[in-house]
Amino acid sequence: MSEQKIVSRKFISLGYLPAWLEELALGRTVYVPRQEGRTVLYRPFVPGDLPEFSRRPAESAKHVLFPRSEGLFSFCRKGDPGAPDTRGLLLSESAEPGQAVIFGALSCDARGFFAFDPVYDGCGTKGIAKDVYYLKRRENTALIVKACKTPLSTCFCHWTGGGPASAQGADALATDLDGGILLQAVTKKGAALLESAKLSPATDDQEASARAAHEAAVKAMPSSPSLDGAPEALLGLFDNKAFWHAQSAGCLSCGACTYLCPTCYCFNLTDESNGIAGTRLRTWDTCMSALFTMEASGHNPRRDKAARLKNRVGHKFSYYPRIHDGRFSCCGCGRCIRSCPSSVDIRQIVLNALKENADV
Amino acid sequence: MSIQEELQAVIKEALPDVSCVIGWREGPEPLRAAPLFVRTPADADAFRSGYFAVNNPAVFLPEYKGGKVGVVVKGCDARSVGQLLAEGLIRREEVKVIGFPCNGVIDVDKVAVALAGACDPGEIQAAREEGDELVLTTPSGEIRLRKTAVTADKCGRCLFPNALDADVFVGDTLEPAVSADDYADVAAFEALSLEKRMDFWEQEMSRCVRCYACRNACPMCVCREHCVALSRDPRWLTQSDGVRDKMFFQIIHASHLAGRCTGCGECQRACPARIPVLLLKRALSRRVEDLFAYRAGVDVAGPPPLLSFALEEPKIKERDW
Q: Of chain B residues 201-240, which have a CB less than 8 A from chain A?
């Protein structure tokens, strides 16, 4: 880090961590990385358990702010025997989301929400159509990210403007030190979480050790290529079917990449009704599915997986940055590469696009 | 010449007759190969076979129907090819099958278990095989694991290490390590009470993100974009995040694969939530073997039992009911 100003700093010895998390969980849901089966996911903290830090979570933390499936409201059709010509509809709103803390998210997870923010804050409608469901959760959720020490072979946060110890988008940054964790708040929300008797004051030495750890983590990342020109290169290849067929040959068209992605924000709306009552659901959608663009007429503008993969890569590295000040809607977490059953590598596709464009 | 070099030569020879040969190359992580599509002789140099070549290339074959394509297959992959042929999903004359003796493949999940928190498997920088050991380069130094501890379960019960029905077979055939699949995993699970089994699946399915990697990685899944999981009309499943719908889909998937699943395990390997969905399919495969004496992808001379009708099945005596 740290481009951001540190508002307050505290130290917690490892022995106090469970007690502090229990304290945070009073009146809030605290999400931590948790081992479940043979994987690590963000799950509500269970008193007595320690967060799992030896492996990085397979999924991003986006489901905390953007649930996989959420009931927007429920409905029930109503008839009045006294007035048979009229029909009523009873709507009930879903409950307001509560307060939450994500402890131990990765830096890339926090930066992932940057891709959501403008879109759900009504950027396309000059701020008129705001997504209240997302914004409420965003406001109610505090993020404490934990600095990474070593990169995975699929990590590339630094290609996209991030870093292993970046606090961008987070409220506080946690760094492992001998015997405990240094906590540095970068927002008021973060500072409020650090007001606890379970935490002790941090020293300058501890902050210096954390800085050294952050620098070592940055150094451990392999050098990053320049992606300048990626938006234009991808747009230039829009009609190059041979290129996209080659890039997508191994793709299975499943949704693992988009569902694990911290920045993929597309959703579907369905009415799940049973008889006269039901719920309007908002559910994650995936542009890798053929149904994503299936039109009511039966026409599908993205009929093959090449067209669909082109959209995923193009959206993140071309269409989105072209309308959002050049920012990629990719935070380089590498989960799409790591969990792809076919090892489709989005980094390689972007580099191939740059190369292909340079060769033309 | 190593098996890999021999295969590279065979791929190059096959190329003039086929639009591409499907195999494996190095992937973005040292432990995971990626599918390779060889279209020119130079592409063949990237071909890799061996311990990390886990993906089942048969899953791609139906996409290439209508033109001739080559595919390099392990024994288990060859069973998928056999089943695709038996069901008429691909045509024999359109596929050139290249086989080799397979010594087993890695299960990356088992590596994570064997590392016991020493590092994240994603931090592994390099991997090489040394005899019975797998040597991993990690940020904290070299770690040696016994290959037997990290080899896929399916390899331990493999009866067909040599691709069946191959047009070209490279190398000497291997003797299978076992003489029968005893379905000990299924038997152990089915010994649990119904309540315990239900609890197990509810817990496991709660992790499902509904990405359908299991479905798409399955070479035998044929409904494609008409899948019950996504169809809105008719609407079989809701889009909610509940365990019921997730389990409903998995049970439909497993039922549709009864007598068709070859046990390649790609559904389970593809699952980002690591749900052991192969167990459901194996439970049904065991029943099909018992009832119909049929093993998918092996006994493919006649039609698969659940895709055909017999007035009376030898082992189902309906008239005596």
A: 204, 207, 209-213, 215-217, 224-225, 230, 232, 238-240
